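Reposting from the mailing list since nobody answered there.

I have sequence plus structure tokens for a pair of proteins and want to know whether others read the tokens the same way I do. The first protein:
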Amino acid sequence: MSRTPSEINEEIAIKIAKFKEIFVPYPPHVHLHAQCDLMRKLNRELRGKPQYGLRVLAPTGSGKSTTADSYIAYVEKHTPRTEDYIPVIKIDLERHMTSKKLMVLILQEFGDSFPNYGNELMLKKRVIACFERFRTELLIVDEVQHLNYRSGSKNDVTDTLKGLLDTGVVSIVFLGTEEAEKMFNRNLQLNGRLRPPCDLKPLSAKKAEDQKLFAGFVAHLDKALMDTGVLPELSGLNDAKILASLFEVSGGVVGRVVRLLHVALEAAIRREGCQIDIADLSWAVDAWAVEQGFVKRNPFRDGRFD
């Protein structure tokens, strides 16, 4: 009996959701977890004294936000939130941020019932009080490239973030694209508060070590898809020709491989496949990578798989 479109969509939604829960132990992402852990420990030892910040810049699709979310999930699994303890919070910045908006976002994350109530100074005092009350050790600030915008020194959010470090209540991890480097370069005082960068740079096809990292990531991902029951069989994604094509499409950014496979998985499910095949990957490149402007050509259509 053939499946209805609704049944197919339900299966796709369930399996993609399960896919998104997979964390592959990719060394640069594991290193970021370790650096976040160090930041929390530094916060405990330096509580009340100026804190450190950590810069994490990477191209779109590098998996920095997903890695941060997986770190928070790990922390809360081992040290759950309580009424008076929130170990880590994460906020996503918006375009045209102001210091007041920053405080509102933080208060919202703490679950404050009236995050907009008060002037900027009052909001800042309430934010600091929340960090102290909940003994929060780490603030993760995502999309920091939006801080390239400023309408004047009074609205320079980077100074506000530096001020939070100076209060001694919380360590801060700054996540963003390479565009954010301009923001750090213009605020040397903030730069002076940062530990060595933990940027996630694209892998290079010319470096043997990077090729090994990429192949290992793809192999782990392929196995995880089967081990978690998303697919019943391995897809053979570690084939040399497939790896070369995935590297070309992703530009060495592993997060883009994951997003491409989300689309390819949909194609495999629609045809009731047991694995992701070349046709699924080719369709995914056309439907996602080319349409989104990541690549101009489809390496899965160039004849190398004939």
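The second protein, same order (residues first, tokens after):
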Amino acid sequence: MDTPLLHERFPSHDPDAPFFRHVPLGDRPTPVARLAAGLADGPADVWVKDESVFGDLWGGNKIRKLEWIIADAQARRSPTILTFGALGTNHGLATARFAQAHGVRVALALVDQPVDDHVRAQLARLEASGATIHRTRTKRRTYLLAPWLILRHGRFAAGRFRPAYVLPTGGSSAVGMLGYVECGLEIAAQVRAGDLPEPSHVVLPVGSGGTAAGLALGLRLAGLRSRVTGVVVNDQLPLDAAHITAMANKTARLLRKRTGDLRIAGPRPEDVTMTRDWLGSGYGHPTPEADRIIEESRAAGGPDLEPVYTAKALAAVRALNARGDLGDGAVLYLHTYGPR
């Protein structure tokens, strides 16, 4: 596995003590290729960056975040990562598999979502993962139980109490977002290498915002003009452009603090577009457009889509390109789903 681009961009004076600790969990770079014909035809030339192949125990966008999160939890000597999601959470499953493989226990607080075959299969994986599962049912009840869960999953070690490491939904902490700062730098490296044209837009599904925020920061650090276009799939969070850039600026502040480089600037709201037009009735609720493109992508040899995130995002790419809203250059769809 290659050295992370963040370590190359911000080299430490002591190679054994980098500014940001990192646990390698996947092979980089992830591949880019043109999208299968017929899935999103229009004026723009649509490409795919396939994050599904990143990681072995599970794939997709959550793994890049966990490379930095697990290392941070280990450095803090946290006994358990406590994180949050819905019943079909990919983030929760990835955290359970990878963190426990690196000696950190995992506890999950799960809220309800519409249950279909996809969610039932995912819940069975979660129950088999070895993580401690708390069915907290609602967001409000999760907030009320959080202090008890943090203490419940802490422990005494070396004469002091160490509480659980609290990880926001989707791994979208300032540390976790480093994973998609890294991805933004990686896209720029692939553009420089001639693997794809510089995209005018990078389109992706947005559930907690961390992937979009980290990516917007990484693209800016890399000097690309690409605009992040987020397809919102979660109606429980304020996921507008101002919120995404505020999240990105938390990671920019962390980078400035750790590296001492005061030139690091975060993205601006005008660098990001967020759309809720493909959300449907809410998080986890199916839409006809998503159902249709799942079947068409399977038949065309395109990405392996699921109904909650990636199908809605690719359905948005199709409609936006058909309308000409993505211009007539190159567009990159970031494929974030990676079952194993």
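Reply #1 (J.P.):
I read it the same way you do. Residues 1 and 15 are 17 Å apart (CA to CA).
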